[in-house]
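For reproducibility, we list the full input for the manganese (II) ion complex.
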Amino acid sequence: MKMTFRWYGEQDRIPLEYIRQIPNMYSVVTAVYDVPVGEVWSEESISRLKALAEGAGLKMEVIESVPVHEDIKLGLPTREKYVEAYCENIRRLGRAGVKCICYNFMPVFDWTRTQLDKRAADGSTSLVYYGNQLSAMDPIKGELSLPGWDSSYKKEDMRRLFELYADVDDEKLFENLVWFLKKIIPVAEEAGVNMAIHPDDPPWRIFGLPRIITCEKNIDRMLSAVDSKANGITLCTGSLGADRGNDLVHMAAKYAKMGRVHFAHIRNIKLVEDGFEETAHDMGAGSLDIIGIVRALEENGFDGYVRPDHGRMIWDEKGKPGYGLYDRALGAAYLNGVFETVQALKK
Ligand SMILES: [Mn+2]
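The corresponding predicted structure, in tokenized form, follows.
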């Protein structure tokens, strides 16, 4: 396994030197943020990020994410030009030494939480999702702003998107994903890049919009639609684990054995009656079998990238919710320990 850490480029307030000091840290996970979704990333921006990472003694082998334009998810005729730009980004990133691209296929909203600063008994705060809070939100009428959202959406754009998605059910969205995969996977193969789709977070419909990368059955379908090693997944335990029906140990073992887990986001969540709460990464803090998942990956030949995922805010740190330094560094250290122990016991 290669340990990685998300870094938001030069706008990130966490210095690369700090990231490098986390034990066993190998690569940043980053992206070009200076162009709108759907456009080609400049070679200059890509090489600048790479130079900065390498200057700090880190690799830049993972990109998260190259976002997919809504027109592709909607299946609009304009998807042709956006998929061409997407393929060009894959080629450029491959030339820059990138080995893995994480992306998602969630309509309109990226990962969604209903509160960003839920205080725990120990005074730390974390991101949570409660169904009753979600039902009080109306993305068309409300003044909503959540971290996974593209804040550039105006209210009118939002209404228009919802109208367009009224004709897109799960099946249609799946067809649009397969169309996209058939275009990009051959390009990824040639570029030496593994594509790793991130599961929908949370793995169910929100605001009536379709979501499809949610469970074993749908992931199987996605993987077999384009049967190539380059068509893989990001195993995000906190996303898939929000649905009690997902057996994460089984899924980790199965997809690692198939050689299709290229990237793993390993974090814990606590399942509660009305949703879930993000916790510290360790197994005791939440509901997920973190050791079982790591063991399943290790025993089935996983050698991809791993990163801690959202962290809590602790020690008075201020910053981007879920993306502070301290708790994610603790998460990485914990995961290093679990991986080392599982590896040692295997010998
Ligand atoms: Mn994730």
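The longest strand covers residues 25-30. The chain has a mean pLDDT of 94. Both points were considered when choosing residues for closer inspection.
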